[in-house]
Design a protein that fits this description.
With 105 residues, the protein is mainly α. Helices cover 57% and strands 0% of the residues. It has a domain at 39-103: DnaJ domain (Helix Hairpins), CATH 1.10.287.110.
Length: 105
């Protein structure tokens, strides 16, 4: 009863595995950890820039420069107020995506 735990066929005790599984919970096996990798957030940022998953740092930089020129607030003097506000929001979104991609590269 209080003796050594029974060993499984591979020579390890089954008790520690049961404790680990219980500590993680039943859904730990099926749900991916959103903080375990950068794939989800990384892919979203690439989508903001309109780039494929296998984009290089050079691709990211050149696409960022091109998109920023299209929606930079200082270059949109002839647009109406609504278009300028939309372009400013897009500019901020592009800039944030670019900064986070380059920072974590």
């Amino acid at each position: 009863m209080f003796g050594k735990p029974a060993e499984s066929s591979d020579g390890s005790s089954g008790e520690s595995g049961e404790r680990e599984a219980h500590a993680r919970g039943p859904e730990a096996e099926s749900k991916p950890n959103p903080h375990s990798g950068r794939h989800g957030r990384h892919q979203h940022r690439l989508n903001v820039l309109g780039l494929p998953r296998d984009a290089t740092l050079l691709d990211i930089k050149s696409r960022y420069r091109r998109l920023v020129k299209e929606c930079h607030p200082d270059l949109l003097h002839q647009k109406n107020e609504l278009e300028r506000r939309q372009a400013e929001r897009r500019f901020v979104e592009i800039t944030c995506a670019y900064q986070e991609l380059v920072e974590h590269w």
